[in-house]
Amino acid sequence: MSRFRKLAWAASAIVIAHLIWLAVWPNARWGFLASQQFQFLAGVLAGIACWRASERSQQYPRMFWQFSAVTFGFWSIASLIDSSYDLLGNGLIDPPLWVALVIFLSTAPMFIAALMGGGKSEERVHWDVILDVAQLLILIVAVHIMLVAIPSMTQSVERGAVHRLILLAAWRGALALALTMRAAFSKSLAIRRLLAPVAAAMSLFAVASSVGNFADRFQIWNEVRWFDLAWTIPFALVAVAASLWRERGRVGVQSELTADSAPVFIIYLPALAIPVILLSLYSTIVFEQVVVGLTAMFVSVAFFTMRVLVAQRRQDQMLQQLANSERRYRRLFEDNMAAVYRSTPDGQITDCNQAFCDMFGYTKEEIANGSAARLYAGGKVEREATLRDLRTHGQQRSVQVAYRRKDGSLIHTLGHRAMVVDRDGMEMIEGTLIDMTQRRSLELQLQQSQKMESLGTMAGGVAHDFNNLLTVIGGYSAMQMANLDANDPNHEYATEIKAASDRAAGLTRQLLAFSRQQVMEERPVILNSLIRDFEKFLRRLVGEDVQLRTSFDLELGTVRTDPGQMEQVLMNLTSNARDAMPLGGTIRIETANVVLNERSLERNPIVVPGGYARLSVSDDGIGMEEATIAHIFEPFFTTKAVGKGTGLGLATTYGIVKQSRGYIEVQSSPGAGSRFDVYLPLIGRDGAGKSGDTRTAVARGTETILLVEDDVQLRSMSVTLLQSCGYNVLTADDPREIEKLCERHGERIDLLLTDVVMPHLSGSEVAKRVAAKVPAIKILFMSGYPTHSKLDRTALEASGSFLQKPFAPAVLAAKVREVLDQELTGQA
Questions:
Q1: Total domain count for the chain?
Q2: Integer angstrom CA distances of residue 58 from 120, 243, 252, 598
Q3: Do 516 and 510 touch, CB atoms closer than 8 A?
Q4: pLDDT for the residue numbered 827
């Protein structure tokens, strides 16, 4: 049991004990004094309970319980002194006048607390409380002196006692009325919960104690002094209420009473009783009563004036604080990076910050004069659905909504909105919005990039298997061509097979270029020849409704670049030109030799001077604005509809051109088409020599080669080719067999020719195991993958040899001979 509930049980025990005492010893000699002790104990217990309640309270409840504790403390002290005089004088000696005055004044603190406001104040000295307490004390003392003290000296004792009882009853009634009115009309539920039980107890006390006092004075009772309970029971009820009090949340008293002039007039209204009393006593009034009354009136007026000034000062301070708070929150409202708004259910936006205006592209006047429905992508229908949902659920948190800007573009937002009721009882919608358009665009770009990466991974896997097949087809057809006379009909068939294999290899390179997995393999290239070879593919790419025209500079010089990557550049620029002409048109591809100085190019302020080959791709499509041109080479930037473009084409083109030490320029305007110029540095004007006879002498040798290849057909073709060149070939279809072969043949093995990607063991792991058995062995890797990402770079750098599939037989023979002839630079 908590100590607070113990106080409640103690209060109940005092009441029960008092009842038992009155029932068992109704006419006992000490019955009256015993009742006074029970009343004293109840008062002390009520004071302790009130003080304990103040310790677990804040703001107004804390002050109320403290003042109430003072009330019961004063009453208990005065009651103890009064009972002492009764005990010592056997009821024949009256206590001093000041004891009656203390009893009379004891309820003043609770009366003040009932009318005072609460809340926090920065003032260390609460002058309003001091003035109110002083005013009430002056009033009580003045009335007591005028109606009790002075008459007791000039009139009969009986009449003075009656006046005292009347004043005491009126004063306690005023306290009960103040508590009841405050509890009944307070706007705060917490205040009503605080004051209601105390008001009930003190109302019972006011009525019962008045009846008891008059009954005791005029000896009106029947055997048992039950009216003695008029003090014990109300005080015990207050003790129980204070013991059970628990503060719940904030008590809104500051806004209810503080800085309000109404309590000032309520507290000072009783001061009007002084002139009323003086007028009522005009026939029997004495000089001393006039002096006391007028003095009290003058002091009351002075205190009233000071109290009004204090209240006015407090009100000015609160208004200033309110203005400062309004400015502070208005600044937070306006400077907020999130869009904040407030609107009515019918669509009138009553307030918004600048971020809201910037987000939608309207001025505040335009927003105030327009409907909120125009901002919704779905218009009025969507807003009405939102309004119904808010009225059902009250709020929407972290909701993603698409709105429409003034220029018609969509913006994607993440926001919170709620239906609230303002002070006037009107429904309002309050919300905040964060622009998520860029983030959503990045998320879509990331998804698109991941999709492209997946396609690239798939393309790499397809290329590996496809290149193995092409190596077999091309290898056997090349060997067949080498073994047949040029006039043999079968030689022509083999030639066609070889040509088809080469075209398939070209398609593989295009697939890899599209997926951006082709490795830069720079070599001298004449752009004219590259465009002619790629033109058939480009014509299929643009379709029948677009004309493709080419114009070549016959004296075009040679550049150093990767042909496959330049094909990707051509494909990207041509496909963009096609998309810019949805109704058809003409695409022109031109080449020319140009000389550039440091400031020849508008969008490339620093240019290495010299000769360049210019590749131009132009169209007569819709063109672009300058704002669009400024971003076209940025990754993921696209002007195409969702699903129609990745935003990677021109970014990839820019990267390839830069990697080839070149530059790219764009010229365009709305309705006038676009022109892209690619500048690549010249390395000379000697074109690549024409292909020689396919029966070029093949490099030969007699060394022993360990071939590790999991593809049966490719392994068989490679064995046939190498054996035809005079080499002794050892084969392993399973990489796990290599250690046995190395132990069996030992130092006889001169070269390891291994695929990179195989089941069970990778090519780099095979190389490490073979090198451990045969330290002097040389290594040649081969792979159908477009990059070396699958290859251990340490092993590659140690051997320095790699052969990309598909390869011609002569290329394989030449590469094998090259590796065997080079000096051993390291171990794999």
A1: 4
A2: 9, 16, 11, 78
A3: no
A4: 39
Q: Nearest-5° angle of CA 343, CA 345, CA 351?
A: 10
Q: Give dist(CA 549, CA 542) in Å, integer.
A: 12
- C-alpha span between 281 and 284 (Å, rounded): 5
Distance between CA atoms of residues 775 and 769, nearest Å: 10
Q: Is the pLDDT of residue 72 over 50?
A: yes
Q: Confirm whether pTM is higher than 0.85.
A: no
Domain identity same for 712 and 677: no
At residue 413, the 3 state secondary structure works out as: strand
Q: How far is CA 650 from CA 562, 574, 622, 666, 756, in A?
A: 17, 11, 17, 11, 33
Q: What is the pLDDT of residues 119-162, one digit of tens each?
A: 444 444 466 666 666 776 677 677 666 666 666 665 555 666 67
Burial (Cβ within 10 Å: 0-12, 13-18, ≥19) of residue 769? middle
pLDDT tens digits, 473-532? 888 888 888 788 878 888 888 888 888 887 777 667 655 554 545 556 678 998 999 999
Q: In what order do the strands lie in the sheet with 349-352?
A: 349-352, 339-343, 427-435, 410-421, 395-404
List, for residues 733-761, the tens digit of each pLDDT value.
777 778 788 888 877 888 999 888 887 78
Alpha carbons 495 and 336: distance in angstroms, whole number: 74
- State how far the Cα of 793 lies from the Cα of 132, in Å rounded to an integer: 92
pLDDT of 684 reads: 57
User: Does residue 275 lie within any of the structural domains?
Assistant: no
User: How far apart (Å, rounded) are the C-alpha atoms in residues 778 and 417?
Assistant: 72
At 301 the pLDDT is 67
Shared-domain flag, residues 618 and 569: yes
The 3-state secondary structure of 331-372, one letter per residue: HHHHHCCCEEEEECCCCEEEEECHHHHHHHCCCHHHHHHCEH
DSSP state of 755: E
What span, in angstroms and rounded, lies between the C-alpha atoms of 417 and 396? 5
Q: What is the predicted pLDDT for the residue at 121? A: 46
Residue with tokens 């025209």, as numbered in its chain: 549
Residue 699 is classified by DSSP as P
In a shared domain, residues 179 and 38? yes
Residue 384 lies in a domain: yes
DSSP secondary-structure letter at 284?
A: T
